Amino acid sequence: MVSSLSQERPQASAGAGAGMRDPFFDNAKYLAIVLVAVGHSWEPLPGSGRLVEALYSFVYAFHMPVFIVIAGYFSRGFDMSPKRVWRLVTGILVPYLVFEVAYTLFQRAVETPGFPLTPADPYWILWFLPALFLWRITTPFWQLVRWPVPVSLAVAVLASMSTGIGDDLQLMRVLQFLPFFVLGLRLRPEHFAYLRRTRVRVAALPVALVALLVAYWSVPRMSTSWFFRSYGARQLDEPVWAGAAMTLILFAAALVLGACFLAWVPRRRLWMTALGAGTLYGYLLHGFFIRGARFLGGYDDPFLEIPAGRIAVTLAAALLVTALCTPPVRRVFRYVVEPRMEWARAAGSGPETPTYAQPSETYTERRQRELQGPANRPGRPDRGGR
């Protein structure tokens, strides 16, 4: 999902030529989108039980933070140049508006005839698109501030303690998830390479097991609403200080579990690698199927109340989102998910000229490299398309 959402070129893997996709990130995005779809498929399960709730809490503790960290990592070269702003609008805002209308019409058709169209209040899963837009346009600021991650974490803490943040553009989520995006901006390739070490991969297994046990213990003691970052502490009937504490605890938990997840993501090219380039399609489209199944009574079958039924739902969600990431689906929906909209560009602006800024570069680093001139850019082609 991130490559499509962020509209940036994935970093070339070690030893690969410039401009080649790194299989690691595509594999990570595919596995993460499977977790997203599976988590959404668990939500409507009747009487899901403590085990499913524990798995749900475990997955939600890190799957969106992983997405957001990677999105931040691939936003490192973003500036406010006309070319990049155009890509931001056509790659994020336009699909958001299209799918906001589509999901509104869908909701009206299957459940609520009078369901309002409210672009300022994103429909369910669509919150991530305007959030990414807002995070990205602030990238130049986070590249300049001295302590970006602590500052963004302070913003998230204050948001969780606030009572005056409205629902427009899911601003509460935008602010509480902000530290993960800023962290991604600060990461370097060596940070991901560190996760490849054997001792890290070995340690990831017992850490994940302990986290599962903690999730199981926490089910009757903690609301899963904390993981959504949609509410402040007062809205969850908790004291204000709990908002600050939970923000810090969940941030630490997401970092640890996200590292465990990434440590076991395959680094080589596999069957799933090509699907990782189409995760935006799976993300935007799977909601129609899951919400449709819920609205049309698909979750009312008593079979879903037994373990075999819950396993069947999990496998069905994984297969569904996998199918939605395949090239045939991408070809059909490309014009609404990744519109180029050259017809809307001002006359004389010319075609988009791609750049080869790597995601490991900050904006300042890229500008310094560009000022050196082509002769001092080893391994970088002077022209070419994405």
From TrEMBL:
- Write out the entry's keywords from A to Z: Membrane, Transmembrane, Transmembrane helix
Write out the transmembrane intervals: 54-74, 86-106, 122-138, 145-165, 171-188, 200-219, 239-263, 270-289, 309-326
Q: Which residues form the Acyltransferase domain?
A: 23-322
User: According to the UniProt record, where is the region Disordered?
Assistant: 346-386
Pfam families for the chain:
Acyl_transf_3 (PF01757)
Which superkingdom? Bacteria
- Which PANTHER family does UniProt cross-reference here? MEMBRANE-BOUND ACYLTRANSFERASE YKRP-RELATED
Q: What is this protein called?
A: Membrane protein
Lineage summary: Bacteria, Bacillati, Actinomycetota, Actinomycetes, Kitasatosporales
